[in-house]
Model the fold of this input.
Amino acid sequence: MGATSPKTMEEANPKPPGFLHPVRFFRRLSREHSGAGELAAAVWVGIFLGALPITPFGTAAIVYVSHRLHLNKLAGFAASNVCAPPFVPLACVEVGHFLRHGRFLFAFDRHVLLDEIHLRLWEWLLGALVIGPILGFAGALLTYAVIRALRANRSPDAQPTGN
Done:
């Protein structure tokens, strides 16, 4: 019989990291699908879905889509914060209003924002379909360039060995 190396308790009983072990859970989550292209795609998905007027369900949508596309969920969620109110939603409303009426919306009073909320939500959706992909592409391109540069600048001593 060949000699086997003794296994640690964690190797002998591998448990999927869960909410009872948050450090292991987030460590595993942060390392999944972490290639430069995969992270850039996750950032694009996060920014695009973050721009849509699905605010109460945005996080769930980003996690679901990232899971289905095998992308990094944390990167997608973090990137969605670029679209936090008020700037991106307001820009989406402006672009949507321009697409519908051919002019920008300059009046932001109670009547325009609250009484016509159904129109502003429709304009937000239209504008998000224009701004979301463009902003997502910029974020993905920036992410890809930064990740590639950071990984290229690693010294050979700092990289893990295969032994």
